[in-house]
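Quick question, first post here. What does this chain look like in 3D?
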Amino acid sequence: MNLLNVIQHTSADYLGLFEDHLEGRRIRFRYFRPFTERGAVPQAGDVCDGLVLLGGGPWGSAGGRNVPTLEAEIGLARMALDQGQPLIGIGLGAQILAIAAGGGSSPAPLGFEVGYATRVEAQALNGFMPERFPLVSYMRDRPDPPPDCTVLAVDEHDRPAVFQVGGNALGFCGHPGFKPAMAEDLIMEFEEGPENPVPQLEKLRLMVREIEDALVPIMTGIIQITGLMQIRRRIPIKLKAEP
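> Answer (accepted):
Ran it through. Tokens below.
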């Protein structure tokens, strides 16, 4: 059974609907919670078969309210990319992936957006990405994917919604497995919240079935792109020596 290291940035933002799909494919996952008293990001030498960086709620990466572990996670993502390890970034995690891959992030206020993304690459996720699918984003700041990445889908404002770096790293501005309870918990967890979230929450509750249905092919494509069901020889992540 392959093993994913999953970094949380808040207690409310987790894998969500992803969990059932991973468990159904016998892919294990372990959460790292650096925001807790004894939590930390994975260390160099931790053995796993892939890395997932989750959303951050009101935490960002562009200077306004950076997540405290930003630099450590950028370094970890760079090591994963250098070693060809599968990497999935969601929300804040997509920003970290973009920075680690040579792109960046741009300041944007905390927003809660519920809408749709449109596929712009015919063979996105090995052809499994739906032409149109729900896009739920609870995020501060936005990723600026590197020029050599492939944008797979855009949002309703023609901004990158899903992008691919190299052969097996994926960035999602929205959480494909988002649950309404996650938004409710994020709003309650922090003093800072999005302006007037009620209409978005109501819209999200009506989209639950669409999110569940769209995740089936999306998850198939993610598994194929990342190779997470392939048997692999685990290699500990190693830090590069400083020049």
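The chain is about 30% helix and 25% strand.
The radius of gyration is 17 Å.
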